[in-house]
Amino acid sequence: MFVVGPAQVASFGGWSHMISQFDVAVVGGGVGGLLTATRLAAAGRHVVVLERNADLGGKLSTRTRDGFSFDTGPSLLTLPALIDEVFQLAGTSLADEVQLHRLDPSFRYFWPDATTVTFRDQPIATAEALEAFSPGAGAQYLAFLGHARNIWKISERTFFAGDMASPWSLLRRLRSPRDFTQIDALRTLNARGKKMFDDPRLQQWLGRYATYSGSDPSRSPATLACIAAVEADFGSWYVQGGLGTLRDAIVRVAQRVGVEIRTQSEVTGLEATRRRVTGVRLAGEAIAAPVVVVNADAEHLYRDLLPDTKRLRAVQQTERSTSGVAVLVGVDGRTPLIEHHNVWFSRDYAREFNDISAKRVPSDPTIYGCVSSVTDASQAPAGCENWFLLINTPSDDTINARDVGPWMLEKLAAVGPDLRDRARFAEVIGPRDLAERFRSPGGAIYGTSSNGRRAAFRRPAMRGPRRGLFLVGGATHPGGGLPLVTLSSRIVTQLILRSHRQR
User: Fold this and answer.
1) Do 350 and 392 belong to one domain?
2) Which residues form the domain of 224?
3) 159 inside domain
4) Which of 280, 320, 342, 363 could in theory staple to 369 by disulfide, Cβ–Cβ 3.0 to 4.6 A?
5) At residue 403, what are phi and psi to the nearest 5 degrees?
């Protein structure tokens, strides 16, 4: 840890608090908060990160048991160059801090009709696999990639290039009205899939990318198709030792540039005048800072930290992303025909999301299975596998995940490998666990959903209602997931540095 500047004693409500002074106080030690802190410290700011839990990284977390390791949050790294950008500012590189593996194959997909297809690291190889899977699909896939690449190119310099305080924020970054039409925001992802692919199985495959933001493919914009292009062109990556190793590297680099990190330090409120923030309150201590960055759910901010009835109501009226039930299974032996990342699709995708919309656990869910021991033998004992299974559920912390977990293993056995007789243990994580640990309403994994044409503009603004207050992370623009949270840190850092110049 780093030495804090001179402390002062002030009186609040008749009792004394020690006051530490910083240029920036970051509330929450998730990836967005840590990367923002690193950027600001590299720019010469004196920064403290305050995390209420004992562990850092937020949803980028790991679980170990009996020699098995599981990534219980993000299990896939895309666009690693975004994190490398932060590390470069700190005088190092991602390659110097962690060992990266570009996965090939990237994913294997399974359908209820017993068909399967493996996506490779190179688009041409994937197209060849798709052509063998469904005649004509190879050419359709390459045509789709051209479309998706164009969406990414335009989105990178518009949607991802700055904040989204209003539709005008985006319009100012468009080069022409044609940009808006080409990002395919007025069409749903489902509609795009039907236009690009004849095979209903590949239409379902494309719809899966809506789930990357906890959304419904029949309601989310086709702009999300760009994720498929990002995976195809920039790769699907794994960090040796699990993604917890990436979290450790981020913490290490943050400390190296002078960020003070305090765990088990719960912020109980923000100090503010009518016009600006002046710091944060903890139990028995206050921290003075002209800039406060909140890496937490906006509902928690506007209900507990800086009560604001109007903004709280707006946040609560915004549709939440999905939650999920995960099962961590320590498995004896090896399972044939699986890769690092696997997906077993449901029979009826529309029904699956209708169930979620109706606040029901899907009766026939799509099951995602990550088995990182396929790539990294250190993640399980010799001759064993670490299975992380996940299904999408409503963001509802009343769901009894302990009942859903065994049921998921039965569902998997009906369409794929039967792990039940080989399981040493099966540990369940559900919406209630996520809600309690991360103060995420209903256990929503990605904050707000991408459902609807105006969803991007309904996320809580990055600029708070007081000067010096900013939001970062999955609860704000541009959304949840490692790449978007990393982009969020870049955008909010730019806003801070423009608004609060070094004295």
Assistant:
1) yes
2) 100-152+181-239+320-438
3) no
4) 342
5) -85, -35
What whole-number distance in Å separates Cα of residue 2 and Cα of residue 259? 7
Helix or strand (DSSP H, E) at 233: helix 226-234
Encode pLDDT of 334-378 as tens digits.
Answer: 999 999 999 999 999 999 999 999 999 999 999 999 999 999 999
Three-class SS state of 151 = helix
Contact 311, 45 (CB under 8 A): no
Amino acid letter, 8: Q
29-78 per-position pLDDT tens digit: 999 999 999 999 999 999 999 999 999 999 999 999 999 999 999 999 99
Helix, strand, or coil (residue 317): helix
Phi, psi of 249 (to 5 degrees): -65, -40
Q: How far apart are CA 383 and CA 379, in angstroms?
A: 11
Cβ distance 48 to 452 under 8 Å?
no
Secondary structure class of 378 (helix, strand, coil): helix
Please check whether residue 73 is in contact with residue 58, taking contact to mean a CB–CB distance below 8 angstroms.
yes
Mean pLDDT of the chain: 93
Same domain, 391 and 402: yes
Residue 35, in any domain of the structure = yes
Domain co-membership, 124 together with 200: yes
Same domain for 192 and 339? yes
Q: Are 391 and 325 in contact (CB under 8 A)?
A: yes
pTM for the full predicted model: 0.94
As a whole number of angstroms, the distance between CA 97 and CA 116 comes to 36
452 touches 307 (CB < 8 A): no
Three-state DSSP state, 125: helix
